[in-house]
Design goal:
Mean pLDDT of chain B: 93
Distance between the termini of chain A: 38 Å
Oligomer: heterodimer
Number of helices of chain B: 0
Helix content of chain A: under 10%
Strand content of chain A: over 45%
Largest interface: A-B, 22 and 23 residues
Order of helices and strands of chain B: EEEEEEEEEEE
Strand content of chain B: over 45%
Shape of chain B: globular
Order of helices and strands of chain A: EEEEEEEEE
Helix content of chain B: under 10%
Radius of gyration of chain B: 13 Å
Number of helices of chain A: 0
Radius of gyration of chain A: 13 Å
Mean pLDDT of chain A: 90
Low-confidence stretches of chain B: none
Number of strands of chain A: 9
Shape of chain A: globular
């Protein structure tokens, strides 16, 4: 499974855009990139998933360059409630086998 | 989506005892996954539980220590056996649902004295 590398922590202020970059140099052709968010005392929550180029939903955008060796999660105008740990995963999307390996995650702290 | 209920939400146990954690899903799912999250750390997969077959354990985890049951498509249990303080962690149940997304329970926070 492809290993991911992301910053251990990031600080931001309310209203700013936050970009968290993840490296996955050994990503395979069939792998997707998926991001999860985890608040204290809760299980991780799916944020966004993509294969290439750009994906956007109501929560975030995901930018993936052509070589797919990295990806960037973009959170527009963060608020205090976005303080959480964000995990980047390389996801071998196969029916019937979805045991994901979580990396160390990025701890985002949003200040007022 | 899937709604997952885990019980208990937390427990404090004595070393040498066992604790069984229950995971109930509001829909039928093929696979259920059990993760462990030690304090301040990321998630580590313990095992994958299929209904009607033995669970598949990841390296470093064995059935004698973490027996798993999967009696039907909506329920699973994980037992932490012969506990020691090193087993103090959050244990999370997870399922795939709604188009290749993983959903997690809120976890069971276990403290072993």
């Amino acid at each position: 499974l492809a290993k991911t590398t992301q910053p251990i922590s990031m600080d931001s202020y309310e209203g700013q855009e936050v970009n968290i970059t993840c490296s996955h140099n050994n990503i395979a052709t069939n792998d997707y990139i998926t991001w999860y968010q985890q608040f204290p005392s809760q299980g991780p929550r799916f944020i966004i998933q993509g294969y290439k180029t750009k994906v956007t939903n109501e929560v975030a955008s995901l930018f993936i360059p052509a070589d797919r060796k990295s990806s960037t999660l973009s959170l527009p105008r963060v608020s205090l409630s976005d303080t959480a740990v964000y995990y980047c995963l390389v996801d071998p999307v196969q029916r019937g086998r979805r045991a994901l390996t979580f990396g160390s995650g990025t701890r985002l702290q949003v200040q007022p | 989506s899937a709604v997952i209920s885990q019980k208990p939400s937390r427990d404090i146990c004595q070393r040498g005892t066992s604790l069984t954690i229950q995971c109930q899903v509001d829909s039928q799912v093929t696979m259920m996954f059990w993760y462990r999250q030690q304090p301040g750390q990321s998630l580590t997969l313990i095992a994958t539980a299929n209904q009607g077959s033995e669970a598949t354990y990841e390296s470093g985890f064995v059935i004698d220590k973490f027996p798993i049951s999967r009696p039907n498509l909506t329920f699973s249990t994980l037992t932490v056996s012969n506990m020691s303080p090193e087993d103090s962690s959050i244990y999370l149940c997870s399922v795939e649902s709604g188009g290749e997304k993983l959903f997690f329970g809120s976890g069971t926070q276990l403290s072993v004295l």
